[in-house]
Amino acid sequence: MRNSQVLELSDARAVIEAAKREAAGNGWNVGISVVDAGGCQIAFERMDGAPPSTALVAQEKARTAALFRVATSGMEDRIGGRPAMLALPGATPLSGGVPLVAGGQVVGAVGVSGVMPQQDHQIAAAGAALIE
């Protein structure tokens, strides 16, 4: 048996704030979701001007990154060579989901939606860096 770290609400809020700073610094309006290791949403924020659809898409990107334990940008990159990736059950293989890793263990993930794929990833990575 091993001990597990657990992402808390204060951690999720801090990740969102770090991601928002990255987005705001670039003039981007996005939705940001933080989920636990099982993919259940802990916190979400939609910046002013971000489309309503970002709420669902950001959460699904975060859930995918948490459950598959990888950044969704890598999953999206593989779709061209392996379109079967689109058939993975419960997966949203779109850039913008990044696992949150503490002590070498995935404790959750952050998902971002609202701008170009590489920008979503950049914002999510800035939020994830807070936990590392």
Q: How confident overall, as mean pLDDT?
A: 94
Number of domains: 1
Count of separate DSSP helical elements: 4
Computed Rg: 14 Å
Question: How many strand units?
Answer: 4
The level of helicity is: 25-40%
Order of helices and strands: HEEHHEEH
| CATH classification class | Alpha Beta
Q: How would you sum up the major sheet?
A: 4 strands, antiparallel
- The CATH architecture comes to 2-Layer Sandwich
Give the termini separation: 23 Å
Oligomer: single chain
Core attributes:
single chain; alpha+beta; Beta-Lactamase; 4 helices; 39% helix; globular
Explain this structure.
A hairpin with a 2-residue loop joins strand 3 (97-102) and strand 4. The chain is 39% helix and 20% strand. The chain has 132 residues and is α+β, with helices and mostly antiparallel strands. A four-stranded antiparallel β-sheet has the order 2-1-4-3.
Write the layout of secondary structure elements.
Blueprint: H1 9-25, E1 31-36, E2 41-46, H2 54-68, H3 72-79, E3 97-102, E4 105-113, H4 117-128
Antiparallel strand pairs: 1-2, 1-4, 3-4
